[in-house]
Amino acid sequence: MADGLCGVKEAVFAYHIQKRTMNSILNLALIGVGRIGRIHAGNIATRIPSARLSGIADVNLEAALQVADQFGVPLAVADYRDLLRDLRSMQ
Questions:
Q1: How many helices (H) and strands (E) does the chain have?
Q2: What is the CATH number assigned to the segment(s) 25-90?
Q3: Would you kindly state where each structural domain of the chain is located, as residue ranges?
Q4: For a Cys-Cys bond, which of 23, 32, 43, 50 suits 37, CB 3.0-4.6 Å?
């Protein structure tokens, strides 16, 4: 059942990405840059032309800063609440 739900979420996400205009950029933030989070960061930053990785949060600030530096992300914080607040102020 969990696999089916995940597939639905992916399909909805893909549909919304396709509906976006070519000039539109989807700003994304990532919470957690452990093993899988680093993979997500790389994919968002390098493989999705209509997406921009705008911020990263991880309880290990050094890890967040390292991944942010690696992928040119302008914001890296240790507390996800700071990430959400700072991203809202950028709009």
A1: 4, 3
A2: 3.40.50.720
A3: 25-90
A4: 32
